[in-house]
Design a protein that fits this description.
The structure is a single chain. By secondary structure, this protein is mainly β. The chain has a single domain, classed as Immunoglobulin-like. Helix content is 7%, strand content 38%. It contains one helix and nine strands. A five-stranded antiparallel beta sheet has the order 1-2-3-7-5, with no helix packed on it. The longest helix has 14 residues. The N terminus is likely disordered.
Length: 195
């Protein structure tokens, strides 16, 4: 299970760049995922929103960030890595792993109330290993799929953690820079209606 409130949310300890240091930097990273990562996805609305997080010399964006209704259907998440520093690098974005906070990392032991995976239905995600490539300046695009589903017993809803690595290869200095970031997609418990 993932902990979406961890201090290093949005950045992996495996990042090749210096990790954020100090409590304020950690809180800023969490705020970036929770605020920027849900832009446009207000209570009462259907699937939507977009997120953005810095990665290497560019930015990773993804959408949607919120899935509704929880209809057990697979939804495509579009993931872009844009690098426009103009140094001629080959850039890529790769989906490393996908998991959610209502089951074990392999998809087993899913919480009751969310519709247990079956052999016919399969896992609640797909797309690990998907890669998109482009030349700087440009945008590399790939996708992942997650199921619009959550346990009705957990008020926080379900949070998918899509771990991606963005890479810059070549360019004027013939080097390779890689950084890993985490993208959060939420299936809310409800649409925030109060009676």
């Amino acid at each position: 299970m993932i902990d979406t409130a961890r201090p290093d949310a949005g950045r992996s300890s495996a990042a090749r760049k210096a990790p954020a240091k100090g409590l304020l930097s950690s809180l800023a990273a969490i705020a970036m995922i929770l605020v920027v990562g849900t832009a446009g996805a207000t209570p009462g609305h259907r699937t939507g929103g977009s997120g953005s997080v810095p990665c290497n010399d560019g930015t990773v964006t993804w959408s949607p960030t919120t899935l509704w209704p929880p209809n057990h259907k697979m939804q495509t998440i579009t993931i872009n890595y844009t690098d426009d520093d103009g140094d001629g690098d080959m850039i890529s974005i790769t989906v490393d792993s996908i998991r959610h906070d209502q089951a074990m990392a392999d998809g087993s032991e899913e919480l009751n109330g969310s519709g247990q995976p079956t052999d016919k239905q399969g896992l609640d995600w797909s797309g690990a290993g998907n890669t998109g490539m482009a030349t700087d300046p440009g945008t590399a695009t790939t996708t992942a799929q997650v199921r619009s589903e959550r346990s009705g017993r957990v008020k926080a809803g379900r949070h998918y953690d899509i771990q991606v690595t963005c890479s810059d290869m070549g360019g004027s200095e013939m080097e390779m820079d890689m950084e890993t970031v985490h993208l959060i997609v939420t299936v809310p418990h409800d649409q925030g209606h109060r009676t």
